[in-house]
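Input record (Table S2, row 473):
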Amino acid sequence: MASVGAGGAAVINEGSPQAQAPAPFEAGRDLRSPNRNLAPITAALDGEGRLQVGGCGLSDLARTYGTPLYVLDEATLRTTCRAYREALREHYRGDALALYASKANSSLAISALVASEGLGLDAVSAGELLTALQGGMPADRIVFHGNNKSAEELQLAVEAGVTVVADNWHDLDLLAAIAPAAQAPVRLMLRFTPGIECHTHEYIRTGHLDSKFGFDPDQLEAVLRHLLGCAWARVIGLHAHIGSQIFEIQPHRDLAAVMADALALARSLGHPCTDLNVGGGLGIRYVASDDPPSIQTWVQQVAESVMAACDQRSLALPRLLCEPGRSLVATAGITLYSLGSRKEVPGVRTYLSVDGGMSDNPRPITYQSLYTALLADRPSADASETVTLAGKHCESGDVLLKELALPPSSSGDVLVVLATGAYNAAMSSNYNRIPRPAAVLVQDGHADLIQRREQPEDLLRLDVLPERLGRVR
Ligand code: LLP
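Output record (LLP complex):
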């Protein structure tokens, strides 16, 4: 149940079992580290008990912009950005910079917002790179990743003057052909596989040795020696990333030691290596039982372990970079759907279908991810029904939420799925030729459209009908 908070508005948030309406503010909402909350920090109830985010009524947004609709709360995103920035300043003795891993959710508006908060950005494709640059992210705050960058992508990165993270020999071969034409040596980081196991979904684990990402640690010395002879390259740092949606701190501490050894090696060979990029990975709360560390705790532990590892090896402190994606943007985002058909399978389950599904949120079908959902206009009503929330795609597995406790609902009601700001829009598809949702940014009672809704014409835009096939009438 929601309750009335200090400001008069009832506040919806964390702390209840999965199949319940979220518990009240008093259950421990963390306003400094929104990754520990279920809902955006501005979530509140209006005088009639309807849910608002960023001061905007959610069912009003659904009426104005249609559904499915991605809604991004500016205050929550700015808060997570500041949490990283301030924690790095507080806990690390040297220079530090948090880079937004834009694979989590890439758009002009998010790039601009994150840039305005003083963060940098990690891009992994020409598309993400262009989005960042055009969104106003300064090139000297961008790093460019990828385990199979094309020559065109590397060309773009070199011309833009961003830092390139070399993942393998193929990158180095391509760069050797492209980079000498550039005015200055390419600022290069080397990614290596640190050999660290962590508990997360198999598909989003990257630090263990059997990973497609990065140089094998045994090869690192040979790569570093090779690069001593490459005038086009300036090896400014090392990178490793162990995985995503991680709640444990220990793997990140272990990573610091592994990276400090690599840093000592690189510097002993004569590379400047001023930067150490420890990747991202901090998890968020999707359901009440999730209990991730706060951004402050994560940063403190990472910073302290990097400092300790460097001190033990008598290494001058590198600039510390980290690359959070999910923990920056996930909780800021929610998705609105309209409820449609209902099917009751007697004695088995009740399916409620929404007007989206696996095309706007492929995480449940891909990773069996859990979410929290509620009705926009009756978030605190008695959840007396247990339903299965199905998508509209032609696939039995297109189920967004199993065993969801909801108040009685009818077709047309607006349903809110929480914590969809990361890897939802970013991984969306047009399966079944379903257009992608629009996205709005909300703040102080105002909504800005930041992504137009795809139209059926947009889906046909790139199709070509060969003349010889004629036109079907
Ligand atoms: N840096 C690198 C090199 C990465 O590969 C990733 C995520 C990040 C940073 C950001 O990690 P985060 O802070 O977001 O955990 N699609 C999956 C997640 C894939 C993550 C890929 N790499 C999901 O929906 O859970």
